[in-house]
Amino acid sequence: MAETWSRRLAERAEARRAEGLWRARPTVGPADGRLDFAGNDYLGLARDPRLAEAQAEGARRFGAGGRASHLVCGHQDIHEALERRLAELTGRPRALLFSTGYMANLGVLQALCDRHTPVFQDRLNHASLIDGARLADAPSRRFHHRDLDDLERLLARAPKDAPALVVSDGVFSMDGDVADVAGLSATARRHDAWLMIDDAHGLGVLGEAGDGCVGRAHGVDDVPVLVGTLGKALGSAGAFVAGDEALIEHLVQFARPYVYTTAQPPGVAAATLAALDVLSTEPERRALLFERIARFRREAATLGLTLDASTTPIQPLRLGDSERTLRWAARLGDAGLRVGAIRAPTVPRGEARLRITLSAAHDDDALDALLDGLAACQREEAA
Ligand SMILES: *Cc1c(COP(=O)(O)O)cnc(C)c1O
To answer: Mutation test of ligand 1: which of 128, 201, 272 has the most ligand atoms closer than 8 Å to its C-beta?
Structure first.
């Protein structure tokens, strides 16, 4: 009965509001004047006119829409060119484009795993990795965050009749710390398991050439399954899986989130190619980003703010309580600064935090404004 549904929705809404967990979407204009410390545009590419131009030109040449799935007739030259570039960047034989990172993770897990596949996930893995194991109906076990001994213990107890998959974020999206890729790889190999790393926040930022925390430093034997996303540091949209020929062909055949969806709009692929050009020709952007990170951490420490030990653009400030986190975010908002207030269920209860993200696009004035804003929050609380 319709009324039962209305009541059910009203009850869920009421419960979420009562916990201080209700979420509102800010509507953002092209230039709303706020300084953005909430997004994932780490290199300042999302609004780079060169990407927009490439996207427009790609749409003119190849069409605005993807027209069909990749397997029917949606796979165009430009997708092929982008896949080759991504394989090259990450030092892998092949790469396969997906429309979003969420779908790439669903696709890999669903295509590789079934209900007999033991899957081991870092406790802080992204929601899409958790959901992918669910879609595969695979028994997922969580190991303590970055704890190789715990992983070792779980792997040792796993049934040996099916190969296991170890899964971790590369850079943890709400914490900013980086997985021990070499340690995970060695542990997985001891148990004949594959390692899958989702490097959504590392690609374009970390690595010798912006190739991420896996990239060329850890080859396909160490990390057989690599996922990267294109909507963060690369300022565009979409994602890819990189690996050897057999893995990629397996995904083309069996990954339902790949097979049953329309190909990425070709203009988007063109924009990503333009972003990859910038990444390789302007290494100073990454250098600038790391200078910003160092300056922010130095001056936040002077203010007495305790940041997590993160070396990446993701700099969380843990405030614990969700009301307090909302208060600080609102205070910063009044000062013209946008900072993410991250609460349960995105992070565990009691671990609410401001997720401050830095970008090569921030100048010294922007950082000054952020530090002033944080100091004002402290003063208000002390008063
Ligand atoms: C953002 C993110 C995704 C999802 O990527 P989209 O392209 O935004 O769908 C997947 N994994 C991690 C770790 C992420 O941070």
So the answer is: 128
Cα four-point dihedral sign 204, 340, 178, 113 = negative
Same domain, 272 and 321: no
The DSSP letter of residue 207 is: S
Q: In terms of domains, do 274 and 332 share one?
A: no
Residues 85 and 149 in one domain: yes
State in Å: Cα 173 to ligand 1 middle.
8
339 closest CA partner among 304, 300, 309: 300
Kindly report whether the global pTM for this prediction surpasses the value 0.70: yes
Q: Which residues of 357-377 are buried (b: 16+ CB within 10 A; e: fewer)?
A: bbbbbbeeebbebbbebbbeb
Total structural domains within the chain: 2
Q: Which residue is associated with the tokens 């204009």?
A: 29
Q: Does the beta carbon of 239 sit less than 6 angstroms from any atom of ligand 1?
A: yes
Instruction: Round the average pLDDT of the chain to a whole number and report it.
Output: 96
* 81 and 274 Cβ atoms separated by less than 8 Å: no
Alpha-carbon span 79 to 69, nearest angstrom: 12
Provide the pLDDT confidence category of residue 19 given band limits of 50, 70 and 90.
Answer: confident
Does any ligand 1 atom lie closer than 6 A to the CB of residue 200?
yes
Does 231 carry a binding-site annotation?
no
Domain coverage including residue 304: 283-382
